Amino acid sequence: MLTRRTLMSFVTAMALAPAVARAAQRQAEAPLIEFSEWQDDEPLYLFFPGDKLEVSVTSAPELNRQTQVGADGRITLPQIGQVMAAYKSVPQLQEEISGRYARVLRYPEVTVFPGDTAPTRVLVGGEVRTPGWVEIQGDMDALQAIMAAGGFLPSARSKKVVIIRRGHDGRAMRRTIDLKSILSGERSQMTALRRFDILFVPRSSIAEAGLFVDQWVNQLIPGGILNYFMYRTFN
Questions:
Q1: What value does the mean pLDDT take over residues 144-169?
Q2: According to the model, what pLDDT value does residue 193 have?
Q3: Does 230 or 165 have the greater pLDDT score?
Q4: 10 lies in some domain
Q5: What distance in Å separates the CA atoms of residue 132 and residue 123, rounded to the nearest whole number?
Q6: Do 91 and 136 belong to one domain?
Q7: Please, which pLDDT band fits residue 45 given cuts at 50, 70 and 90?
Q8: How many domains does the chain have?
Q9: What string of H, E and C letters represents the secondary structure of the chain?
Q10: From the CB of residue 198, how many other CB atoms can be counted at a distance below 10 Å?
Q11: 93, 96, 112, 142: which one has the fewest Cβ atoms less than 10 Å from its Cβ?
Q12: Structural domain of residue 151, as residue ranges?
């Protein structure tokens, strides 16, 4: 016997079905990511939270300090306080500190010496057995990073692996590499990795990389892809 309560529940479910379907479709859609042109040249090293460095002030040796980039990206120096160091190169940081010391010193001559660096990590996702962060040991290439993430799943499209990297302008760059040829014993160029690269192994199309970035970066890291790649967020 069909009760009134059962009938109302059925009618409500039928009424909500289109809305639920539309919501699921919206969740599956990734925001458009505008990638800049890929560049292979090696940029200057940028400081990251956890890196150690030494600041030498030739004209005032008493201000010399060995310090470490904090979790907020800043270092603290005598007389000028906190200075943003994260995502800046040695020349950029030297210029910033010199400008700050110019307010209290007549001839500030500042030299920055990089010290120990924090662990280098890359993010591996998609059709691998254990997706997530992988620490780079020495000069690790893309295939080694994927092996460290458990290797390819049978559904992986290893011929179309995507690398997403921060470019000179802070925007994300994207390229596709063929790792299937290497596994098949064919001659192919190994692809070296840089700090905080993103490796995505698609199942069917590189278009899935946009969804991966949305799920793994935008939803897991405050500020999403902008805070992951763009130094401007630290200025």
A1: 86
A2: 85
A3: 165
A4: no
A5: 6
A6: no
A7: confident
A8: 2
A9: CCCHHHHHHHHHHHHHHHHHHHHHHHHHCCCCCCCECCCCCCCCCCCCCCCEEEEEECCCHHHCEEEECCCCCEEEECCCEEEECCCCCHHHHHHHHHHHHCCCCCCCCEEEEECCCCCCEEEEEECECCCEEEECCCCCEHHHHHHHCCCECCCCCHHHEEEEEECCCCCEEEEEECCHHHHCCCCCCCCECCCCCEEEECCCCCCHHHHHHHHHHHCCCCCHHHHHHCHHHHC
A10: 24
A11: 96
A12: 121-234
Tokens of 207: 């278009």
pLDDT tens digits, one per residue of 112-134? 999 887 777 888 988 899 988 89
Judge whether 18 lies within some domain: no
The stretch 193-208 carries a mean pLDDT of 76
Q: Are residues 128 and 228 in the same domain?
A: yes
Whether residues 130 and 222 share a domain: the answer is yes
pLDDT bin (cut points 50, 70, 90) of residue 7 is very low
